[in-house]
Write a structure and sequence with these properties.
- The protein is an alpha+beta fold.
- The chain is built from 6 helices and 8 strands.
- The strands form 2 sheets. A 5-stranded mixed sheet has the order 2-4-5-7-6, with helices on one face. A 3-stranded antiparallel sheet has the order 1-3-8.
- α1 packs across α6, α3 runs parallel beside α4 and α4 packs antiparallel against α6.
């Protein structure tokens, strides 16, 4: 299985990473490390354009031309986190959705919503494997979390309170020339 809207090219990496053999995990990590980085401002701009008519509030800070991001990871995380938050809005039209990109000492992409928190019984297995919930099975979060890990990032549920549920993708800032 692969996360909805995640690039197919890392599907094998997800499968290999989930394998118990250390060699397969190392091979998956090496493949993801070899994928090209892209200018962060273009990736963020593309995500913003994709969700322009869906009522998502975007903000960005410190994302200059030299900030390089793993495209597959940010495409996958962006789509998965935003789709999950928008699914909550379909259940409750008052839910606000915000996406923010910050680049200071680390790059952080967060998606927050004003909906209900993730249920305690779902939290126990969230991002560790499939977990049934009202809106799905969490497979996209699991796969995004694994892709983040093999890409040197981490995906976390940073806040889980009524009216403030935030998932955050964090990692080291990589800077470079265009085309790397």
């Amino acid at each position: 299985m692969r996360a909805a809207n995640c690039p197919r090219s890392c599907a094998a990496s997800f499968r290999d990473y989930a394998a118990p053999a250390t060699d397969a995990r190392q091979a998956a990590k090496a493949r993801c490390e070899q994928r090209p980085l892209h200018q962060g401002r273009y990736l963020v701009g593309g995500l913003q354009r994709s969700y322009a008519d869906r009522g998502v509030e975007f903000s960005r800070e410190g994302l200059g031309d030299s900030v390089m991001l793993p495209k597959e990871l940010f495409d996958c995380a962006g789509d998965n986190l935003l789709q999950n938050a928008l699914r909550k809005r379909r259940l409750d039209e008052t839910v606000a959705v915000r996406a923010s990109f910050r680049c200071n000492d680390a790059i952080e992409f967060s998606v927050c919503d004003s909906g209900i928190p993730v249920a305690a019984e779902v939290l126990r297995g969230l991002m560790r494997g499939p977990v049934p919930s009202e809106t799905g099975f969490g497979i996209g979060l699991y796969q995004t979390s694994r892709l983040a890990e093999i890409s040197g990032f981490s995906l976390q549920l940073r806040e889980n309170d009524h009216g403030r549920v935030c998932f955050s993708l964090r990692g080291e800032v990589r800077r470079g020339a265009r085309g790397q």
